[in-house]
Amino acid sequence: MNKKLRTVRYLWGQQLLENLGSSKIISGYILGVLISVLASVQYLQYAGNRSIHLAEPMVLMMENPVYRFIIFIGLLLVLSNAPFITERSVLMIYRINRKEWAISSLLYMVTHIFAYYALSLLITIMITAKHSYIGNVWSRAMIRLASVEQKSAMVKFGLSIPSTSLLKDISPYKALLFLYFANCFCGILLIFLAYLISLRKNFIWGNLVVLLIQFVGLSVSREYMWHVPFWIAPFSLTDLELVIVNKMPFRNIGIYFAVIIMIEVICVCRVIRTKDWFLHVGEENESM
Known about the structure:
This protein has about 290 residues and is mostly helical.
Protein backbone atom coordinates (compact mmCIF):
# COMPACT_ATOMS: atom_id res chain seq x y z
CA MET A 1 0.00 0.00 0.00
CA ASN A 2 2.80 2.40 0.93
CA LYS A 3 4.52 1.71 -2.39
CA LYS A 4 1.31 2.48 -4.30
CA LEU A 5 0.80 5.71 -2.38
CA ARG A 6 4.38 6.77 -3.07
CA THR A 7 3.90 6.01 -6.76
CA VAL A 8 0.68 8.05 -6.90
CA ARG A 9 2.34 10.94 -5.05
CA TYR A 10 5.35 10.81 -7.39
CA LEU A 11 3.17 10.82 -10.52
CA TRP A 12 1.03 13.65 -9.12
CA GLY A 13 4.14 15.71 -8.41
CA GLN A 14 5.57 14.98 -11.86
CA GLN A 15 2.39 16.18 -13.56
CA LEU A 16 2.43 19.39 -11.53
CA LEU A 17 6.06 20.08 -12.42
CA GLU A 18 5.75 19.16 -16.11
CA ASN A 19 2.76 21.45 -16.65
CA LEU A 20 3.82 24.30 -14.39
CA GLY A 21 4.80 26.64 -17.22
CA SER A 22 2.02 25.67 -19.62
CA SER A 23 0.59 28.65 -21.50
CA LYS A 24 -2.94 27.25 -21.14
CA ILE A 25 -2.60 26.92 -17.37
CA ILE A 26 -1.20 30.44 -17.03
CA SER A 27 -3.91 31.87 -19.29
CA GLY A 28 -6.65 30.12 -17.30
CA TYR A 29 -5.40 31.44 -13.98
CA ILE A 30 -5.03 34.94 -15.44
CA LEU A 31 -8.65 34.88 -16.61
CA GLY A 32 -9.81 33.91 -13.11
CA VAL A 33 -7.68 36.67 -11.56
CA LEU A 34 -9.00 39.30 -13.98
CA ILE A 35 -12.63 38.50 -13.18
CA SER A 36 -11.83 38.58 -9.45
CA VAL A 37 -10.17 41.98 -9.81
CA LEU A 38 -13.09 43.32 -11.87
CA ALA A 39 -15.72 42.12 -9.39
CA SER A 40 -13.80 43.50 -6.40
CA VAL A 41 -13.24 46.91 -7.99
CA GLN A 42 -16.90 47.18 -8.98
CA TYR A 43 -18.01 46.51 -5.40
CA LEU A 44 -15.44 48.93 -3.95
CA GLN A 45 -16.67 51.65 -6.30
CA TYR A 46 -20.22 51.05 -5.15
CA ALA A 47 -19.33 50.92 -1.44
CA GLY A 48 -17.35 54.16 -1.58
CA ASN A 49 -16.20 55.08 1.93
CA ARG A 50 -18.36 52.46 3.61
CA SER A 51 -16.72 49.40 5.17
CA ILE A 52 -17.48 45.98 3.70
CA HIS A 53 -17.15 42.42 4.91
CA LEU A 54 -14.12 40.59 3.48
CA ALA A 55 -16.37 37.80 2.16
CA GLU A 56 -18.77 40.06 0.27
CA PRO A 57 -16.76 40.61 -2.97
CA MET A 58 -16.36 36.85 -3.46
CA VAL A 59 -20.03 36.23 -2.62
CA LEU A 60 -21.21 38.86 -5.11
CA MET A 61 -18.84 37.58 -7.79
CA MET A 62 -19.89 33.94 -7.43
CA GLU A 63 -23.58 34.89 -7.25
CA ASN A 64 -23.24 36.54 -10.65
CA PRO A 65 -24.01 33.71 -13.13
CA VAL A 66 -22.04 35.34 -15.97
CA TYR A 67 -18.91 35.85 -13.86
CA ARG A 68 -19.25 32.31 -12.51
CA PHE A 69 -19.47 30.94 -16.05
CA ILE A 70 -16.42 32.91 -17.23
CA ILE A 71 -14.43 31.79 -14.19
CA PHE A 72 -15.27 28.19 -15.00
CA ILE A 73 -14.04 28.73 -18.57
CA GLY A 74 -10.71 29.77 -17.04
CA LEU A 75 -10.65 26.56 -15.00
CA LEU A 76 -11.50 24.50 -18.08
CA LEU A 77 -8.62 26.21 -19.88
CA VAL A 78 -6.24 25.24 -17.06
CA LEU A 79 -7.23 21.56 -17.41
CA SER A 80 -8.16 21.52 -21.10
CA ASN A 81 -5.46 19.00 -22.01
CA ALA A 82 -7.04 16.16 -20.05
CA PRO A 83 -6.17 13.28 -19.93
CA PHE A 84 -2.65 14.83 -20.10
CA ILE A 85 -1.17 12.09 -22.25
CA THR A 86 2.10 12.65 -24.08
CA GLU A 87 4.49 10.23 -25.74
CA ARG A 88 6.69 10.38 -22.63
CA SER A 89 3.82 9.71 -20.22
CA VAL A 90 2.58 6.77 -22.32
CA LEU A 91 5.88 4.97 -21.76
CA MET A 92 5.53 5.59 -18.03
CA ILE A 93 1.94 4.27 -18.00
CA TYR A 94 3.05 0.93 -19.46
CA ARG A 95 5.70 0.61 -16.74
CA ILE A 96 3.31 1.11 -13.81
CA ASN A 97 -0.23 0.24 -12.75
CA ARG A 98 -2.76 2.10 -14.90
CA LYS A 99 -5.06 2.72 -11.96
CA GLU A 100 -2.25 4.52 -10.13
CA TRP A 101 -1.77 6.76 -13.15
CA ALA A 102 -5.50 7.52 -13.27
CA ILE A 103 -5.68 8.35 -9.57
CA SER A 104 -2.65 10.65 -9.80
CA SER A 105 -4.26 12.45 -12.76
CA LEU A 106 -7.51 12.91 -10.85
CA LEU A 107 -5.60 14.25 -7.84
CA TYR A 108 -3.71 16.61 -10.15
CA MET A 109 -7.02 18.03 -11.40
CA VAL A 110 -8.46 18.32 -7.89
CA THR A 111 -5.34 20.23 -6.79
CA HIS A 112 -5.73 22.76 -9.58
CA ILE A 113 -9.48 23.16 -8.95
CA PHE A 114 -9.10 23.98 -5.24
CA ALA A 115 -6.08 26.20 -5.95
CA TYR A 116 -7.89 28.03 -8.74
CA TYR A 117 -10.90 29.04 -6.64
CA ALA A 118 -8.69 29.73 -3.61
CA LEU A 119 -6.68 32.18 -5.73
CA SER A 120 -9.89 33.94 -6.79
CA LEU A 121 -10.87 34.27 -3.13
CA LEU A 122 -7.41 35.51 -2.17
CA ILE A 123 -7.45 38.16 -4.89
CA THR A 124 -10.81 39.56 -3.74
CA ILE A 125 -9.55 39.71 -0.14
CA MET A 126 -6.26 41.38 -1.09
CA ILE A 127 -7.91 44.08 -3.20
CA THR A 128 -10.55 44.97 -0.60
CA ALA A 129 -8.52 44.34 2.59
CA LYS A 130 -8.09 48.02 3.52
CA HIS A 131 -11.86 48.54 3.43
CA SER A 132 -12.89 45.24 5.05
CA TYR A 133 -13.73 43.92 8.51
CA ILE A 134 -13.95 40.34 9.76
CA GLY A 135 -17.05 40.32 11.98
CA ASN A 136 -19.62 37.77 10.85
CA VAL A 137 -22.33 40.28 9.88
CA TRP A 138 -23.24 41.77 6.51
CA SER A 139 -22.10 45.33 5.92
CA ARG A 140 -24.43 48.29 5.55
CA ALA A 141 -23.28 48.59 1.95
CA MET A 142 -24.45 45.04 1.20
CA ILE A 143 -27.77 45.56 3.02
CA ARG A 144 -28.46 48.76 1.08
CA LEU A 145 -27.46 47.00 -2.14
CA ALA A 146 -30.07 44.32 -1.49
CA SER A 147 -32.82 46.66 -0.33
CA VAL A 148 -32.81 50.26 -1.59
CA GLU A 149 -30.06 50.70 -4.20
CA GLN A 150 -30.69 47.74 -6.48
CA LYS A 151 -31.33 49.49 -9.79
CA SER A 152 -28.56 52.10 -9.51
CA ALA A 153 -25.99 49.51 -8.40
CA MET A 154 -26.91 47.20 -11.27
CA VAL A 155 -26.87 49.91 -13.95
CA LYS A 156 -23.96 52.04 -12.73
CA PHE A 157 -21.63 49.40 -11.28
CA GLY A 158 -22.75 46.17 -12.99
CA LEU A 159 -23.29 44.36 -9.69
CA SER A 160 -25.32 41.22 -9.16
CA ILE A 161 -28.03 42.04 -6.64
CA PRO A 162 -28.61 39.64 -3.71
CA SER A 163 -32.05 39.35 -2.17
CA THR A 164 -32.76 40.60 1.34
CA SER A 165 -33.94 37.10 2.27
CA LEU A 166 -30.51 35.69 1.42
CA LEU A 167 -28.85 38.13 3.83
CA LYS A 168 -31.32 37.19 6.55
CA ASP A 169 -31.02 33.43 6.07
CA ILE A 170 -27.24 33.02 5.98
CA SER A 171 -24.14 34.65 7.47
CA PRO A 172 -21.24 36.01 5.35
CA TYR A 173 -18.79 33.23 6.28
CA LYS A 174 -21.33 30.47 5.74
CA ALA A 175 -22.20 31.95 2.34
CA LEU A 176 -18.51 32.16 1.46
CA LEU A 177 -17.80 28.57 2.50
CA PHE A 178 -20.80 27.27 0.58
CA LEU A 179 -19.85 29.12 -2.61
CA TYR A 180 -16.20 28.08 -2.42
CA PHE A 181 -16.81 24.37 -1.82
CA ALA A 182 -19.89 24.15 -4.07
CA ASN A 183 -17.94 25.62 -6.98
CA CYS A 184 -14.93 23.40 -6.25
CA PHE A 185 -17.02 20.22 -6.20
CA CYS A 186 -19.03 21.34 -9.24
CA GLY A 187 -15.68 21.89 -10.97
CA ILE A 188 -14.48 18.42 -9.94
CA LEU A 189 -17.67 16.80 -11.22
CA LEU A 190 -17.50 18.52 -14.60
CA ILE A 191 -13.73 18.28 -15.12
CA PHE A 192 -13.84 14.57 -14.26
CA LEU A 193 -16.64 14.19 -16.82
CA ALA A 194 -14.52 15.96 -19.44
CA TYR A 195 -11.62 13.67 -18.50
CA LEU A 196 -13.79 10.57 -18.86
CA ILE A 197 -15.10 11.66 -22.26
CA SER A 198 -11.56 12.50 -23.34
CA LEU A 199 -10.48 8.96 -22.54
CA ARG A 200 -13.16 7.62 -24.89
CA LYS A 201 -12.98 10.34 -27.58
CA ASN A 202 -10.59 13.28 -27.29
CA PHE A 203 -10.20 16.39 -25.16
CA ILE A 204 -12.18 18.60 -27.60
CA TRP A 205 -15.34 16.51 -27.15
CA GLY A 206 -14.92 16.46 -23.38
CA ASN A 207 -14.59 20.23 -23.14
CA LEU A 208 -17.51 20.89 -25.50
CA VAL A 209 -19.88 18.62 -23.56
CA VAL A 210 -18.95 20.26 -20.25
CA LEU A 211 -19.37 23.77 -21.68
CA LEU A 212 -22.81 22.81 -22.98
CA ILE A 213 -23.82 21.52 -19.53
CA GLN A 214 -22.60 24.76 -17.95
CA PHE A 215 -24.45 26.84 -20.52
CA VAL A 216 -27.68 25.02 -19.66
CA GLY A 217 -27.00 25.75 -15.98
CA LEU A 218 -26.35 29.41 -16.78
CA SER A 219 -29.67 29.59 -18.64
CA VAL A 220 -31.48 28.04 -15.67
CA SER A 221 -29.84 30.46 -13.23
CA ARG A 222 -30.80 33.41 -15.45
CA GLU A 223 -34.34 32.00 -15.70
CA TYR A 224 -34.14 31.62 -19.48
CA MET A 225 -35.07 27.94 -19.06
CA TRP A 226 -37.51 28.20 -16.17
CA HIS A 227 -39.20 24.89 -17.03
CA VAL A 228 -35.97 22.92 -16.39
CA PRO A 229 -35.60 21.74 -12.73
CA PHE A 230 -32.66 23.69 -11.28
CA TRP A 231 -31.11 20.62 -9.60
CA ILE A 232 -30.47 18.93 -12.97
CA ALA A 233 -27.66 21.36 -13.85
CA PRO A 234 -24.62 21.30 -11.50
CA PHE A 235 -24.06 24.99 -12.29
CA SER A 236 -27.42 25.88 -10.70
CA LEU A 237 -26.47 24.10 -7.47
CA THR A 238 -23.67 26.64 -7.00
CA ASP A 239 -26.21 29.49 -7.03
CA LEU A 240 -26.68 30.19 -3.31
CA GLU A 241 -29.83 32.25 -3.72
CA LEU A 242 -31.44 29.61 -5.94
CA VAL A 243 -30.58 26.91 -3.41
CA ILE A 244 -32.05 28.91 -0.52
CA VAL A 245 -35.22 29.86 -2.43
CA ASN A 246 -35.81 26.19 -3.27
CA LYS A 247 -35.03 25.21 0.34
CA MET A 248 -32.49 22.57 -0.68
CA PRO A 249 -30.30 21.48 2.26
CA PHE A 250 -26.57 21.95 1.76
CA ARG A 251 -26.11 18.34 2.86
CA ASN A 252 -28.16 17.11 -0.11
CA ILE A 253 -26.03 19.13 -2.50
CA GLY A 254 -22.90 17.59 -1.03
CA ILE A 255 -24.37 14.09 -1.43
CA TYR A 256 -25.36 14.91 -5.04
CA PHE A 257 -21.82 15.92 -5.95
CA ALA A 258 -20.17 13.09 -3.98
CA VAL A 259 -22.25 10.32 -5.56
CA ILE A 260 -21.70 11.52 -9.14
CA ILE A 261 -17.98 12.08 -8.57
CA MET A 262 -17.58 8.55 -7.14
CA ILE A 263 -19.38 7.09 -10.17
CA GLU A 264 -17.04 9.04 -12.46
CA VAL A 265 -13.95 7.78 -10.61
CA ILE A 266 -15.16 4.17 -10.94
CA CYS A 267 -15.82 4.69 -14.66
CA VAL A 268 -12.38 6.22 -15.20
CA CYS A 269 -10.69 3.26 -13.50
CA ARG A 270 -12.65 0.82 -15.68
CA VAL A 271 -12.03 2.67 -18.96
CA ILE A 272 -8.33 3.16 -18.34
CA ARG A 273 -7.71 -0.60 -18.10
CA THR A 274 -8.39 -1.17 -21.80
CA LYS A 275 -7.26 2.15 -23.26
CA ASP A 276 -4.76 1.99 -26.13
CA TRP A 277 -2.55 4.91 -25.14
CA PHE A 278 -0.35 4.91 -28.24
CA LEU A 279 -3.46 5.18 -30.42
CA HIS A 280 -4.76 7.94 -28.12
CA VAL A 281 -1.59 10.01 -28.53
CA GLY A 282 -1.87 9.67 -32.30
CA GLU A 283 -5.48 10.87 -32.20
CA GLU A 284 -4.56 13.83 -29.99
CA ASN A 285 -1.74 14.86 -32.33
CA GLU A 286 -4.06 14.70 -35.33
CA SER A 287 -6.76 16.81 -33.60
CA MET A 288 -4.19 19.46 -32.70
